[in-house]
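Researcher: We're teaching a course module on how sequence relates to structure. For the next exercise, students receive a sequence and then see the predicted structure as tokens, so they can try to spot secondary structure elements on their own. Here is the exercise chain.
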Amino acid sequence: MKKITIAIDGFSSCGKSTMAKDLAKEIGYVYVDTGAMYRSVTLYALRHDLFLPDGTIKADQLEEQMGDIQITFRFNQEAGRPDTYLNGELVEQEIRKLEVSAHVSPIAALPFVREAMVRQQQLMGREKGIVMDGRDIGTTVFPDAELKIFVTAGAEVRAQRRFDELRMKGMEADYESILKNVQERDYIDSHREVSPLRKADDAIELDNSYMTVAEQKDWLYKQYLKAAETTA
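Model: And here is the predicted structure for the students to work with:
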């Protein structure tokens, strides 16, 4: 079948990355986690003291240093998924911590950050055969993607999933803090000036609040088959 571009957008912690990774592996496509890219920029900003005590970003300084931020992905054979590297350093665990989660939405709302990341993402998808998830893939990065999915779930459900994921990785987690972070990120992501989170007009919506991972995987694979057959 002819290779297509698959864009999966949705709210934070709604399971879209798991769905995207599983599908890419099953059909032999490249997977790109765009959220990891914004988290990597956030980690860089935290490490270089680019946040004021009140959480304000030193935007001018960050913009000057964007050329020093190199984000790459390398496939982890053991884990069966790509790992994120920031300037050559493996940061997959670091970028998932709550401190990064608490700061990533304001970073992702900066126009110069989004422009830089979107450029990289579009270059990655030039040859098609890619599954990319994020907030603005179907609306901004690949508006002509052959398959667009918009994933949603209740905030409490998403917070519980994030809590369970962190605990499973042996990381500290507090449910109330995670729920607050999820709700704050929903608001910022949906109201930012540049590329706000919204469902593309031609996207298929999936509320996976009460679906198992296996059910989501099966549903997404069927959508892929329909889109690929139509394109062919």
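Model: If you want an answer key for the exercise: The mean pLDDT is 93. DSSP finds nine helices and eight strands in the chain.
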